[in-house]
Amino acid sequence: MLKNHGLSPLLLAWQHWIVLDRKLFHLINGTWHTPFWDAVMPFVRNPYTWAPLYFFLLLVVVMHFRWRGLWWIAFFLLTFAIADQLSVEVFKMFVQRLRPCHDPVVAPTVHLLISCGGQYGFPSAHATNHFALAMFMFLSFRRFTGKWIFVVFAWAFLISYAQIYVGVHFPGDVLAGMLLGLLIGGVTGSIFVRFIPLQSS
Fold first, then answer.
1. How confident is the prediction for the chain on average, in pLDDT?
2. What radius of gyration do the chain's Cα atoms show?
3. Three-state secondary structure readout of 56-107
4. How many CB atoms lie within 10 A of CB 172?
């Protein structure tokens, strides 16, 4: 139990969150790991797995929506670029929270399944990028796909969860990335739908 030794309420709340975040990390990365998911999760979060799926989606969009599809691709790539740059170059450098595999308190017990990566992990760039793209796709596609569009959020969540499972992010890193990504995708998606809505050819 943490005690308040003259700490501000905000700092005390942050310290409580760090303790809870580490406990949840140990559940996902340690207690809940199995040989099956140890093999699956590194594959799920690998760019070589999901990049071809996105590339195929871009081709389908151009074929179906023509010139509007080209604008959609431009906004799709813009959404990704904004999410990636904000999460990596701005927030990670400002917050400077160590990844679990670099955290001296946690690192000795991390069940690390891939290379550790950069020193800082808050927010998760994977979570930010994929939830930004998921929100953008939700807003731009929902007229055409109905309830199936929610699959994009399930996919983004699976990739984000995998980041915790393999040992490179705390749950708090992923949660922050999810929220930031939803905000970015909400902005770019709203602008796209307002000015260049998709229409079937």
1. 92
2. 19
3. HHHHHHHHHHCHHHHHHHHHHHHHHHHHHHHHHHHHHHHHCCECCCCCCCCH
4. 21
Q: Where residue 95 falls among pLDDT bands split at 50, 70, 90?
A: very high
Q: Which residue bears the tokens 């796209």?
A: 192
The distance from CA 88 to its chain's CA centroid, rounded to whole angstroms, is 12
pLDDT tens profile 1-50? 445 555 678 788 878 889 999 999 999 999 999 999 999 999 999 988 88
Tell which residue, 162, 198, 178, has the closest CA to residue 124: 178
What phi, psi does 193 have (nearest 5°)?
A: -65, -35
Q: Which of 87, 102, 88 is nearest to 176 (CA)?
A: 87
How many CB atoms lie under 10 A from the CB of residue 108? 7
* pLDDT per position as a tens digit, 72-87: 999 999 999 999 999 9
- Distances 92 to 58, 73, 125, 177, 198 between C-alpha atoms, Å: 29, 27, 9, 11, 35
93 close to 18: Cβ distance less than 8 angstroms: no
Helix/strand/coil percent split, the chain, to 5? 75, 0, 25
